[in-house]
Amino acid sequence: MTEKFKIWYLYITVFATGAAILIIEILGTRVISPFYGTTIFVWSSLIIVTLSALALGYWLGGKIADRRPDVRIFYSLVLTAGIATSLIMKIDQPILVFADRFGFQFGPLVATFILFSVPLFLLGALTPFIVRLRMKLPERAGESSGNIFAIATLGSLAGALLAGFVLMPRFSLSAIFFFIAGFLIIIAFAGLLMEKQFAKNPTRILFLLLAFGFFAFPTLRYAEATTNNFEVLYAEPNFNSDLKIVKVGENICIAMDGALQTCKSTGSNGQLFSYFEELKSIVSEKTYGDILILGSGGGAMLTLFAPDQRLDAVEINPKMVVLGEQRLGFKAGPNQSIVIDDARNFLRKTDKKYDLVIMDVSKGFTIPSHLFAKEYFEILASHLNQNGVLAINFFGRTEPEDTLTASVVKTLQTIFPNTAVAAPDIGLQNLLIFASFSDLSPVVSSLATYREAKLNAKDGIVFTDDKNLSETLILPNLETLRNSLKGIGGFKLLFAN
User: Fold this and answer.
1) What is the extent of the structural domain holding 320?
2) 288 and 179, same structural domain?
3) How many CB atoms sit inside 10 A of residue 122's CB?
4) Are residues 296 and 434 in the same domain?
5) Measured between alpha carbons, how far apart are the two ends of the chain, in Å?
6) How many CA atoms lie within 13 A of 249 on its CB side?
7) Highest mean pLDDT of the ranges 66-80, 127-141, 157-171, 339-353
8) Taking the CA of residue 471 as centre, how many other CA atoms within 13 Å lie in the half-sphere pointing to its CB?
9) 246 in a domain, yes or no?
10) Closest to 392 measured CA to CA, from 367, 417, 375, 414
11) Most buried pick, 64, 308, 333, 474, via CB within 10 A?
12) Does residue 424 fall inside a structural domain?
């Protein structure tokens, strides 16, 4: 091998490892989100761990390179990073369950640190190492290090594009992680081969065999995820979220990031969700002109209305619509359109007004904060007829200590003169929150089993785009929900493949 080719191979390695860093970081959210949702705490955890691991890698890698500027150490670091990456999807389940004891706020940080800090640290150590290896002339140090950091950054850019637009929409997470791990190990093997390290040091052959042996290492599974309470019929990691088709009693449901979203009853007991039956009562009491469903999910809401009812349904995840049609049989009627869009963006672009707006926008264990801000409700109000009604399915509490529910109601009250909260009981549950410019008593009186709850909104906080604490205030509710999931074996929804 010529010396020039070895230099170019070093640059190729830096480009590839830069790409691996961004792919691991982006995919990390998809590993964590089925267990914790896509909250601000999940994203912050990935950013915190990535930057911390890289910073430590830059510092320690530079110190090692100054003491031993040996290309063999450089490729050994690449090899070890590949081994660490191959383990991520083999130990994720027990690590996520372990981190659960730290709650929804700090659990993602603990899980992210354990799963991703080692490979990111090792990959971070490579850049200062190659800077030292290529440092031939002190007067060209700036140019040399600049070129290397530019190549690493371009690799990260390529990794981000590859992860978001090619890999995640087409392949499973385990396949992508194993591909990245195998790619790093092969790059390291080729680099050590060029340096003729296997002839000089046969022990490196054993180390390489050990590296490939990690791919045969058995995947650790969470034992309690084998409960029979949920039967997983279909699973597909998706760009937007982790989706599964599950059988729950007499219901077939779509689960998103571990939470049931859309269900179809296969028995005589009706819908699994009580709020669905209440909405059916409201619809049956009055004829509405134009209907808007924000967050139609798999399409169960469509069945509330006749096929010829004028209706627009908005859903951000196209795969939810496909699964609803193909697996649950929910299809739009001739006067009904399904739009793939964000609810707020749809309202910003349309000029239509509606008589009834049903909002059901929770995503797994995540609340989309931009859809509970005052500015959003102002846009929504401009698309509601004078006698129109807004009905929000909301997972909250009616007790005074639930600042989240109180804040949503208080935010609505800054725009709508009439609001009401209905619930089947006290405690954590699906609530229906109503808002209108007209009297809501006919709507509340038409409910079947829900009753108006006397919720005091004065202690709530008005959510705005500038200050929105919804993702923090929802944490106590999520902790309670997670504990109830443990009791019925719901972790199977999080881990089934």
Assistant:
1) 273-474
2) no
3) 25
4) yes
5) 45
6) 13
7) 339-353
8) 22
9) no
10) 367
11) 474
12) yes
pLDDT at 306 over 60: yes
Kindly state whether residues 170 and 91 are assigned to the same domain: yes
Q: What is the pTM of this model?
A: 0.80
Q: Are 191 and 291 in a shared domain?
A: no
How many domains does the chain divide into?
2
Same domain, 184 and 300: no
Residue 258 maps to a domain = no
- Which residues make beta-bridge pairs with 395? 430
Q: Do 212 and 347 sit in the same domain of this protein?
A: no
pLDDT tens across 59-117, in order?
999 898 888 888 888 988 998 899 899 889 888 888 888 888 888 889 999 999 999 99
What is the C-alpha separation between 213 and 361, in angstroms, rounded? 45
